[in-house]
Design a protein that fits this description.
About 45% of the residues lie in helices and about 25% in strands. It is an alpha+beta fold and about 170 residues long. Helix 1 runs antiparallel to helix 2. The chain is elongated. The two termini are about 35 Å apart.
């Protein structure tokens, strides 16, 4: 007797290529704050240990450059989504990766959000809420038009579902 084996495949759709720039811009803000703190520490230090400040500053710059180069590319390769007649399926993360599937019959709400930075990059985020203890499924970095279409499609599918959404 053989057991049926179900193998998950990655979801079909990638997020928008503009998400690469969005993720890099968000990370750059953090690195700018850290480098500014380093510069303030350097100018405020009266001990004259300039060499140690230069070494630490150089290390920060190397880490920042590596992070801003690698992270967006890595995330873009991992982040995927798919919505079928039966489920919403996502794959997210970069260091820690997660796959989530929510049956359409369990979907309670579908929301779209565009913050100021997302609007600048013409991106949107879609949140699919279920009764799951794991929380909502989020699809970040979609082109705004794709997010609008996904929300409309999911709203139609959920309305046609005979499930109880609990």
């Amino acid at each position: 007797m053989t057991a049926d084996v179900v193998r998950l495949r990655p979801p079909l759709h990638r997020v928008s290529p503009r998400a690469l720039w969005y993720w890099a811009a968000r990370a750059a803000v953090l690195w700018i704050v850290l480098l500014a703190a380093q510069a303030i520490w350097w100018f405020a230090d009266s001990d004259g240990a300039r060499l140690s400040h230069l070494v630490v500053g150089a290390a920060w710059l190397v880490l920042a450059a590596a992070h801003l180069t690698v992270m967006p590319q890595w995330r873009y390769r991992v982040h995927r989504w798919e919505a079928t007649d039966t489920a919403v399926y996502t794959q997210t993360g970069w260091l820690s990766q997660e796959r989530r599937i929510a049956p359409i019959s369990r979907v309670q709400t579908v929301d779209s959000e565009r913050g100021p930075i997302e609007q600048l990059f013409k991106l949107a985020n879609v949140t699919v809420t279920t009764a799951s203890a794991a929380g909502p499924i989020k699809i970040d970095g979609l082109a705004a038009k794709d997010a609008d279409q996904l929300v409309a499609d999911l709203t139609t599918r959920v309305g046609q579902s005979t499930g109880d959404a609990t």
